């Protein structure tokens, strides 16, 4: 371990360990826990204490149970091996450390295998509300507690299987431009579904709205905004709308969709599969998210 690695720790965008792994082409890595410095641990603690009262007030009850089940601690960044000891016996899922961006096709494939690509860096304690990319707080405290819920975990597996299905169903198209257009449309539709459910989903729980989307649950500012702000449109989940709706990642979300239960969410991902097979997702509305050439090539292969 170099002095530079220890001093800079595993801070988002400033971690020599991650830079080296990326340069060496290593996507799946181990979690070098000894590299977390005091500022990294401070950032986790501050975020946890900032969000805990908001979780208790606005989070889905299954999320709160997941926090307890995983034995997440407020004063220490969790070790992934400890998280997996609690998680895997429940739903078969494991948190799997990665060095950075996971290509879309591979991300889907990981979900299908009940593996969740997990960032190991953490945001700077001086900029808790600014998140240039996912960090371990977003992934472990935002996503993974929901992975303890059986139906939700099955939703992720079912959703993950759709990447392979999308790639296979266009293999025999001879016209390359037509093939590319349809695959791009499929990727956009699937990405939008993930965004408006897994990342930014709301649920009606008894007589109140609650949050189950990890993008909201890991944002101290957005969690209350998502429930109470008059500037947010909150609409019953409509698959037609969701798969054709653009979104922007660097602002509070002005549009959110409400599901009735995790069983309802599983029904919708099953319907998404039927739409994919029937061709209803081959020409969705253009816009965000844009599909990178690298992600497109993965699907074409």
Helices and strands, with pairings:
Blueprint: H1 3-8, H2 16-23, H3 38-58, H4 61-69, H5 80-91, E1 94-98, H6 104-112, E2 115-119, H7 136-143, H8 150-160, H9 162-168, H10 176-199, E3 201-205, E4 208-211, H11 214-217, H12 220-228, E5 233-236, H13 239-243, E6 255-259, H14 262-278, H15 293-300
Parallel strand pairs: 1-2, 3-6, 5-6
Antiparallel strand pairs: 3-4
Describe the 3D structure:
By secondary structure, the protein is an alpha/beta fold. The protein has a single domain, classed as Phenylalanine Hydroxylase. It has helices spanning 3-8, 16-23, 38-58, 61-69, 80-91, 104-112, 136-143, 150-160, 162-168, 176-199, 214-217, 220-228, 239-243, 262-278, 293-300, and strands at residues 94-98, 115-119, 201-205, 208-211, 233-236, 255-259. A 4-stranded mixed β-sheet has the order 4-3-6-5. Helix 9 (162-168) runs antiparallel to helix 10.
Descriptors:
single chain; 301 residues; alpha/beta; Phenylalanine Hydroxylase; four-stranded mixed beta sheet; two-stranded parallel sheet; 52% helix
């Amino acid at each position: 371990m170099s002095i530079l690695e220890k001093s800079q720790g595993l801070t988002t965008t400033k971690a020599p360990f991650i830079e080296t792994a990326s340069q060496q082409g290593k996507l799946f890595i181990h979690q070098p826990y000894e590299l977390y410095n005091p500022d990294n641990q401070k950032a986790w603690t501050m975020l946890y204490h900032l969000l805990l009262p908001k979780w208790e007030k606005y989070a889905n009850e299954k999320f709160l149970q997941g926090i307890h089940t995983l034995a997440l601690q407020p004063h220490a960044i969790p070790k992934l091996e400890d998280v997996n000891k609690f998680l895997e016996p429940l739903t078969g899922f494991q948190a799997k450390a990665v060095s950075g961006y996971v290509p879309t096709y591979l991300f889907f494939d990981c979900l299908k295998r009940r593996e969740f690509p997990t960032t190991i860096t953490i945001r700077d304690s001086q900029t808790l509300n600014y998140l240039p990319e996912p960090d371990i707080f977003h992934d472990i405290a935002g996503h993974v507690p929901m992975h303890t819920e059986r139906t939700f975990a099955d939703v992720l597996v079912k959703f993950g299987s759709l990447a392979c299905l999308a790639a296979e169903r266009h293999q025999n198209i001879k016209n390359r431009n037509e093939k590319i257009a349809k695959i791009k449309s499929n990727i956009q539709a699937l990405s939008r579904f993930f965004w408006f459910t897994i990342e930014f989903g709301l649920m009606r729980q008894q007589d109140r709205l609650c949050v189950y989307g990890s993008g909201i649950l890991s944002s101290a500012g957005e969690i209350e905004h998502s429930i109470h702000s008059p500037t947010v449109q909150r609409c019953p989940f409509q698959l037609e709308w969701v798969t054709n709706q653009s979104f922007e990642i660097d602002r509070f979300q002005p549009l959110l969709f409400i599901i009735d239960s995790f069983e309802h969410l599983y029904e919708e991902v099953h319907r998404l599969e039927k739409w994919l097979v029937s061709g209803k997702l081959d020409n969705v509305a253009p816009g965000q998210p844009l599909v990178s050439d690298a992600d497109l090539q993965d699907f074409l292969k």
